[in-house]
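Database export, one record per block. Field names are fixed; values are copied verbatim from the stored entry.
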Amino acid sequence: MEEVDDAELVVERVAALDLGKAGLEACVRVPHTHRPGRRMQELRGYGTTTAQLLEMVAWLRQWHVQRVVMESTSTYWKGVYYLLEAEGFDCWLVNAREVKNVPGRAKTDRADALWLAKVAERGMCRPSLVHPREIRRLRDLTRYRRALVQDRTREQQRVEKLLEDAQIKISAVLSNLHGVSGRAMLEAPIAGERDPRTLAQLAKGQARKKIKALEEALCGFFTDHHATILQMMLDNIDRISAQIAALDTRIEEAIGPFSSQAARLAEIPGVDAVAAAELIAEIGVDMTRFPSAAHLVSWAKFCPQTHQSAGKSKAQARGKGNPWLAGTLGRIAFANSRSDTFLGTRYRRLARRRGAQKAIVATGNSVLTVVYHLLSDPDASFIDLGPGYYESRINKHRRARDLATQLQALTGQHIAIRDGKAVITDTAA
């Protein structure tokens, strides 16, 4: 037999909450006062207003509850969790899918609270990651910033569709429709200027080389109807841009306590100040929550899942994971797709064989591994392995065979490697 390091997991005094929007069911289970080895339990219902929750806090303290466990039901858990956390309770947030998947069990709110209490007191559940208050506030800022960026992008796309409706084709000539030149050519028609030559002369910098093409692109039937709608769209874009700038300032203030960690993350190719703030907001800076880098990668759902049955391995979906973190890692991988770095080489060599989506996941896996070690060790710094890392680790004979196979595909001749040399043996069929 093999000894394992599992400790006794029974929690003597536990409370479990089944949450709803307007109310909750609470179950407290404690040791029996007169019969050793037996348990006592009590179920009560409370509203989710602050006054009702404070009444529940007094009840939990009356029974000296050690741990409060609740399910991650929508966003209803947040107010309850944060209030109990502020009152000094040890709170656990658990995944409902992991504690309720029992066929044949009665399904009511009170039964759910009782079942969760029984599961929690025996240590048969694990807590989900809930960041401290400073990280949560930073996360609120970074997530809202991304939502605003997406809103601004949608509004800019509406502008382009409106111009297509008016047969204005400047988006086919200018690389950035909302740059200095493009914005001037959008505002002038609103003010009443419709002459294509006059509008084309508003081009600045490199765009002046395209004046002839701009004159042709600006020949359309832009009317006052289009001007009214376009003005509203530009106003929305300006409003959202101002809000994004204000959020950037708040994010810079919120990231202050973690500036050293953000600076180390910014050393990774493809990670700018915004991406570093998003990584810290989603992962946090306390890597003791993850026993290893592999655990962090698995939590983010950026690793393949093992699913083996009857000696055969089968494909298994990774799950959704954290979509905000996945978006950040996707942008980092895309930024490295053409870079002359280790991450860029990793992306390209996998994209050729497995496709872009799998290459993004694999590159994100590498980024998370680097992030884990940078945040785990304050003295660690990023050192790029270089674009030739894989080439240096591949056996030269294997590399020669691969090159011979590629050459055979191009020439149609059968090529073999003998004594380190390529020999044409015959013509391939």
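Remark 1: The beta strands are 14-19, 23-31, 39-47, 67-71, 90-94, 308-309, 312-313, 413-418, 421-427.
Remark 2: Residues 270 and 283 are 18 Å apart (CA to CA).
End of record.
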